[in-house]
């Protein structure tokens, strides 16, 4: 591992520590932290608390965005959940490529584990010119169908449970009822789920017909490749 990559991983650890309130993530080694201070990416206060400089904040944000976009790509399109591949991705891909992949994926807001994906320029441009295309499944009308855009969860176990119910990107889902329990139809099978599971499901906003996905001419083009994919 070269020095720059090690420093990048230290920046990511600091981001995770801040994001999770200092719990659940091991902090960077002192020698690496000292190197980040020398590079002007981090400052350490008299109490020993580390924080980003503006330059360090931007670099860490870019790394986290790239990593989490990679996780979405691997999970949603390739059907894989490989942390090591996502780590390699963030060091190899330029920002412009990441923005292109983000556009392909429909500008997802969260990684498969439920952590926020920092917004990119492509997301801001899209928000200005395109109406919202991905909605929570509970926004559907009773009897309405749509294709799943993405699902997320804070644990791998929950992701695997969703997969076992065929709740995966590209699958056709229809909302049957919301009370007293949520009942959906996924690829022809009726499934009762609780509200926490329903909250993990996001679908392409229906454009008419039986859960049609966006046309390839839309800014969110690329999702049409999922039709009939793994569902």
Describe the structure in your own words.
The chain is α+β, with helices and mostly antiparallel strands and 231 residues long. The protein folds into two domains: 1-129, Arc Repressor Mutant, subunit A; 134-226, SH3 type barrels (Roll). Helix content is 40%, strand content 16%. It has helices at residues 3-19, 30-38, 54-77, 83-92, 95-104, 121-129, 156-164, 195-198; strands at residues 42-44, 50-52, 134-136, 145-151, 172-177, 182-186, 189-193, 201-204. The strands form two sheets. A six-stranded antiparallel β-sheet has the order 3-8-4-5-6-7. A two-stranded antiparallel sheet has the order 1-2. The radius of gyration is 20 Å and the shape is elongated. The protein starts with a helix and ends in a 27-residue tail after the last strand. The model is unreliable at 208-231 (pLDDT under 50).
Keywords:
231 residues; alpha+beta; Arc Repressor Mutant, subunit A; SH3 type barrels; 2 domains; six-stranded antiparallel β-sheet; 8 helices; 16% strand; disordered C terminus
């Amino acid at each position: 591992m070269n020095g720059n990559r090690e420093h990048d991983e230290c920046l990511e650890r600091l981001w995770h520590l801040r994001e999770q309130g200092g719990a659940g993530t091991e902090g960077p080694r002192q020698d690496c932290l000292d190197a980040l201070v020398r590079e002007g990416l981090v400052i350490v206060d008299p109490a020993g608390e580390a924080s980003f400089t503006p330059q360090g904040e931007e670099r860490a944000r870019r790394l986290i965005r790239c990593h989490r976009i990679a996780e979405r790509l691997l999970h949603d399109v390739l059907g894989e959940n490989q942390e090591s591949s996502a780590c390699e991705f963030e060091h190899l891909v330029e920002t412009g490529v990441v923005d292109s992949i983000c556009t392909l994926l429909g500008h997802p807001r969260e990684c498969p584990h439920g952590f926020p994906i920092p917004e990119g320029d492509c997301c801001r441009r899209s928000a200005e010119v395109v109406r919202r295309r991905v909605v929570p499944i509970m926004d559907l009308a009773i009897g309405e169908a749509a294709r799943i855009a993405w699902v997320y969860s804070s644990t791998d176990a929950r992701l695997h449970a969703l997969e076992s119910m065929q709740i995966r990107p590209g699958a056709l889902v229809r909302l049957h009822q919301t009370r007293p329990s949520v009942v959906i139809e996924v690829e022809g099978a009726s499934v009762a789920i609780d509200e926490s599971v329903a909250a993990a499901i996001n679908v392409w906003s229906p454009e008419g017909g039986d859960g049609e996905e966006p046309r390839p001419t839309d800014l969110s083009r690329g999702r049409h490749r999922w039709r009939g994919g793994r569902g």
